[in-house]
Design a protein that fits this description.
Elements lengths: L1 H6 L2 H9 L6 H13 L4 H9 L1 E2 L4 E2 H11 L3 H35 L4 H25 L1
Antiparallel strand pairs: 1-2
Helix pairs in contact: 2-3, 2-5, 3-6, 5-6, 6-7
């Protein structure tokens, strides 16, 4: 299903719709929830994070921030905040995954032991910071 949504640019269309100032609150809420529902796959979240909407000149993040600023209703704000939290959680987990992969690679490299040890320490610290942020926020 996610593949079809991405192929048909449904998330882009929903975000363009959210950028419309005349959009009603119930429709805006449904659009935000639909974007969030597409986040069931890593590919959909990656697409959201890197997308920039042609003709509008804003990213998905910027459109959500504008939605929060210009439509301060409680339901819309909550839905947008939930979406932000999902994306932020994904980014934290991705940072942990990347650091863990670097640690594995560095620990397998025995030629440059001292340099590898310093790099490993830095990567472990990055993992610790990401995990701390994750625990504090969730």
């Amino acid at each position: 299903i996610v593949e079809i949504l991405l192929k048909e640019n449904v998330v882009h269309k929903l975000l363009k719709m959210l950028a419309e100032p005349s959009l009603g609150t119930p429709t805006r809420l449904l659009a935000i929830q639909a974007v969030g529902a597409s986040f069931i796959s890593e590919k959909a979240i990656k697409e959201f994070v890197k997308m920039s909407l042609v003709g509008i000149g804003k990213t998905g993040y910027q459109i959500l921030v504008d939605t929060l600023l210009h439509n301060p209703t409680e339901r819309v704000s909550h839905a947008a905040t939930v979406l932000f939290n999902r994306v932020h959680l994904y980014e934290l987990l991705l940072a942990i995954k990347t650091s863990a992969q670097r640690c594995v690679k560095l620990s397998q490299d025995t030629k440059r032991q001292e340099e590898s040890s310093r790099s490993l320490t830095a990567e472990y610290n990055q993992i610790a910071v990401s995990l701390k942020t994750l625990v504090e926020q969730y």
